[in-house]
Every structure is written in structure tokens, then in C-alpha cells.
């Protein structure tokens, strides 16, 4: 079972891996650049070597990186799109350097231009920066549908996957976002995944953000909370953890917790696994 949480790399990648390992994680997620700006920490060859040695030693093969929130390829402003593309190009180079296999991206916000226009802009923006020299999976995240967010409907993600000219495009499913988008994984788990499979294809699912939620079904509001303390509850997570289709998929916690709290949550999720 691959399970981890979002870790800061401000003290370096080796330290990030060791802190994840130290509380029982078997993978982790990180920001390859400043999540709210354009900054980026330099990384030396020595740090990369050390990091790869630790990955081999502790079998952290699958790692998840997350794009900064300021990227919006569906913007109505050219400079916002270009700035987003600039960050993406630099992030992609870093993924290559680190050998990281997954990159999660919030599709974007159409800012009043309409879903259709937004979808087309995202396709165009991504096609301009993705190329065959990369081999990571671009994982488009399922969103809650707040404001003008794109990606809260399976059909929108399917359109993006079909139209982006890059072979490795998949989906990062967020349990909290899905529920607030109106997909009832609490009461209709099987039905939701039948639909997912029909519209997107279950083989496209590459990462799961495993979060409980403080908000109601279909609320379109995004409020993560600690596993078991929200509206989804342990029964829902029991289904995810024991779903054989997800055996090799990294589960990433993005709950509001501290390191000891994550240790506890990881233990809870591992205990939900049937023997
Ligand atoms: Zn996200």
C-alpha cells in the first residue's frame, strides 16, 4: 500500500523523504516550486544523488508532485497564461531531474469565459509546453466546482485527456472535492466508479488525494478535514483502501494536520486494510 502526505522540501529532498519515512509513509507529495509564487530553490547534484539513494533504500519509487496554485491556463489574461507556462516548463525540467513520475495540476478557472472556452485554452496551453522528452504522468485533479473551476465533472476531465497531445495524461482523484462536486462516494461508491470508468476510464486514475470533508454533498465548497472527522467517515475510506483497482495507486493525505497527526492518520488508513 502506497500512502503518504504533503511534505515540505524547504530543508531539502533527502530530509523530506526521511520525515515521511519516519512516520510510516511509503510515498509523499511535494511542491517542486513555490506554491503561491514563482520562486524555486536551487538543487545540487549531491542532493539529487543522496535523494535517489534514499529512494532506492526505502523503496519510494512513486512520488507525487503538485503544481503551484497560481497557474491558470484558462485565464483571460495572456500574461497569466504565459507565467503559468513558464512555471510548468521549469517544473517539468525538475521532475526529469528528480525522476518523479507524477505531476498533479488543477485544470484551471475560466473566470467567466465559460467552460468550453476554458477547456480549449487549457488544451492549447498544455500542448505548447508538454513534449515527448518527458515521461511523467500529468494528473488532472478532480475539483469541487467552486467559482469558475474547471474539472468538477468527469466529462470535462475526459475532454482534456482526449485533446491533450501527450501520451501520459491521467487523473488525480480528490475524495473531498469529488463529494462537494456532487459525486456521492459515501452512499453510491460503486455507481460513481462505474460512471468514472465509462466517462474517463479507470485506468486513467493515477493518484488519490485522500481527505475527509467538512462540506455537504454537492456544496461546491472545498474544506478538507482529518480522516474520520468529516462527512465521508471511515466506511468510505475503508472502501477506497480495500479497492483492488487502487492497489498500486498512491494515497496522499492533504488534511489539516501536523506530523504526529499524519502518523496517526497513516496508521488509521493502514488499519482499515482487510487482511
Ligand atoms: Zn490539488
- Strand arrangement, major sheet: 1-12-9-8-6-4-3-2
Q: Would you report the number of β strands?
A: 12
The protein's oligomeric status is: single chain
CATH class: Alpha Beta
User: What is the element string, with H for helices and E for strands?
Assistant: EHEHEHEEHEEHEHHEEEHEH
Let me know the largest β-sheet.
8 strands, parallel
Low-confidence stretches: none
Q: What's the average pLDDT?
A: 95
At the fourth level of CATH, the homologous superfamily is: Divalent-metal-dependent TIM barrel enzymes
Number of helices: 9
- The Rg value, from CA coordinates, equals 18 Å
Explain the overall architecture.
By secondary structure, this protein is an alpha/beta fold. It has a single domain, classed as TIM Barrel (Alpha-Beta Barrel), CATH 3.20.20.150. Helices cover 40% and strands 14% of the residues. The protein has nine helices and twelve strands. It has an eight-stranded parallel beta sheet. Strand 2, helix 2 and strand 3 form a beta-alpha-beta unit. Helix 3 crosses helix 4. The chain is globular, with a radius of gyration of 18 Å. 43% of the residues are buried. The mean pLDDT is 95. Zinc ion (ZN) binds next to loops.
Summarize, please.
The protein is built from nine helices and twelve strands.
Any descriptors?
275 residues, alpha/beta, TIM Barrel, two-stranded antiparallel ribbon, 9 helices, globular, binds zinc ion
List the helices and strands and how they pair.
Elements: E1 3-5, H1 13-22, E2 29-30, H2 45-58, E3 64-66, H3 78-98, E4 102-105, E5 108-109, H4 115-129, E6 137-141, E7 149-150, H5 154-163, E8 169-174, H6 175-180, H7 189-199, E9 205-209, E10 212-213, E11 224-225, H8 233-241, E12 251-253, H9 259-272
Helix pairs in contact: 1-2, 3-4, 4-5
